Fold this protein.
Amino acid sequence: MSALINYRAEHRLALIGLVHAPVNALGQALRRELLQALERANADPAVDAIIIHGEGLPFSAGADIHEFGTPRAVAAPHLRALLLRLQQLNKPVIAALSGVALGGGLELALACGYRIGEPTACFGLPEIKLGLIPGAGGTQRLPRLIGVQAALDMMISGQMINARHALELGLLDGLSKSAQSLLHEACAFAHELLERDAPAFPEPRWRFPGSGLPDDFFSQYRLAQQSRWQGQLAPQSVVKALEAACTLPLTDGLALEAELFKALEASSQSAALRHVFFAERNVGKLPGISADTPIRLIRKVAIIGAGTMGGGIAMCFANAGIPVALLELKAQALEHGLMQIRSHYQISVQRGKLTTAQMEQRMELLHGTLDYAEIGDADLVIEAVFESLPIKQQVFRTLDEVCKPGAILASNTSTLDIDAIASVTRRPGDVIGLHFFSPASVMRLLEVVRGRDTGADTLATMLAIAKRLGKVAVVSGVCFGFIGNRMLEPYSREAHRLLLEGASVAQIDRVLTDLGMAMGVLAMHDLAGIDVSYLIRESRRDVIGHDRSYCRIADVLFEQGRYGQKTARGFYLYEGRQRREDGELIPLAERIAHELGIVRRVISNEEVHDRCLFMLINEGIQLLDEGIAQRSSDIDLVWINGYGFAAWRGGPLHYAESLGLAHILERIRHYRDALGAYGQMWLQPAPLLERLVAAGHTRIETLTAKDI
Ligand code: 3HC
Ligand code: NAI
């Protein structure tokens, strides 16, 4: 009796059905049972061919990611050994592929002699997203089936391809008419093979997978990608393994692949990316929200304000096929907003990412209006007007009047108090914050701000809608800046102060990009607008005003009209998107430092790193203590998806664990003491960090404030 496999033998065929819910991950137990089933079929003289299929489930999502880094990952039978055994069988094995065949799941299919897919099935080798390479023969068998170029594309992108594409590439031998008929058609295919006495393993399509490629193909490829890969190990290993597929016999190639895989599995980069994988699966798990929580139907959306954010948010919904009404105060602003949207779509058409017909379909889903009466039937309204509490409250009063009962009323505010906005309505349970990031149609992060009175069904509906939009939704409590911008504040404050103390703009940004940040913090302020951050500071002078040095250099840039990229001058000088250092910045920093009595000195890269990063981490830990963030991994997702923190570092709190919490605490205390009054003001360790270290904890990943 087998728990994870349904085995049937009939009409000369053994049908091995994988039934390990939810995704047939190839953990040790399934591997063992699969091996037993294969041996049974091999030993049965009544069986002449074997079919492996996902029974009522996807074929397989690959190796069980929970096992990596544990002895179970290598416990017998190892996937690699299992597939080698499969290839020794003298009976044709057919993979009948439904749902997904990913990673080790696709490698299982590649080890079979034949593959039949159903029309909605998807295929991929996403190991690179886990900091790995395919480790069960994929790097050697796929290029022999579809050629090096196509195999390289699949492995480097980690993206799935659909069944039709897989058939065209030669990954599949056939496609069933439907998902329902897959097994039946796979059986017919098996009988056909038996009738024509087909070999268990046909000759590889590509005996020389690299044939036709220029000699310097791999070196040129490496050169072209170098800056994009920036310190990441897995892409380099993919190329190395594929190079081996072109030059070595299969057995030697497999041995090299195994070696590369082992090193990657043990790497901190893969541990970080596996952390991110589970962080994404956990982020939607919230107290008070379950599969039973009612979800409201969202068929029509309205957006108030067709500016930068309103337009981008409207595109998100149109992209997902949901009709959107865009409301503005004045016809001119509305027209401008709709034109902006069209021009963004036109750029996508020019880049070949969208067809003209798709663009028109999306534009047809967008409807402009100046009249609130026209949005009374919207199921969800998202306000994206100016960042001013009185203005937003006025909009919400009107929405409360005109919107139908049960409509969800959301605000895209980036700093304001959702409870204060909800309080002007008679339905605070329907009010929620939806903090999209700019550009809204591109950025994956959506901070969902749960107000004091936000209903569980309101929240659950927004998490479901975020999934439809392809966003990573992270729930935050109400506080200034929510999770992301609140953490940005000390990170950014230290960068500004370091300029006054003696660091240069380029040095600060280089330290951060060397760490893997997509952009340095000062370049980011230039992009977001120095005027924007100035206005935010203006609204908070009561909490920052006691420090005259607080972002003083940015205040002066603002006074000089240097708003960043939009004025071609900010921390850097710009020609188009090209930036270069500005010789005026250092004298400016010297002058301000002199006025404030700050003694300038040589600042080490280490100090830049420690002060910017550790104060960012410290604030994240404080957010956990306050219950604003649920889990440390949620914070990591915010910074990876909203602020360009390198996923292969796992996000700021995973990174903190890898450096050591005690070390971080020690450094924060060091700078607090070394920096005099400034240190006392700003570099205070979060109490939770102190408690964690005192209790000897080295990990915050699974802890919440309640645990300590
Ligand atoms: N191992 C373990 N658990 C897995 C898994 C895997 N490979 N793939 C998915 N799961 C789990 C998820 O953690 C989740 O569990 P939960 O309900 O307890 O949170 C459950 O399956 C459902 O997953 P999703 O919520 O992601 O469901 P979706 O329907 O949105 O997506 C999926 C399904 C497309 C299969 C997606 O989960 C996915 O992309 N999985 C990862 C696939 C992958 O990376 N495979 C490669 C593994 S590495 C490998 O194979 C190495 C080999 O070369 C040796
Ligand atoms: P914007 O100035 O580009 O757009 C605001 C739009 O709202 C304008 O078109 C204006 O005409 C319209 N508007 C103003 N009052 C209105 C009213 N009473 N009724 C209808 N329309 C009205 O501003 P942006 O950048 O789009 O910001 C909008 C909101 O999104 C703000 O709350 C902002 O804090 C937030 N936000 C902005 C981000 C950004 O990067 N720009 C990122 C995340 C959130």
The chain has three domains: 5-265, 301-476, 484-707. The domain at 5-265 is CATH 3.90.226.10 (2-enoyl-CoA Hydratase; Chain A, domain 1). The pocket of 3-hydroxybutanoyl-coenzyme A (ligand 1) is lined by residues 22-23, 25, 61-66, 79, 100, 102-104, 107, 126-127, 130, 132, 134-136, 138, 281 (CB under 6 Å).
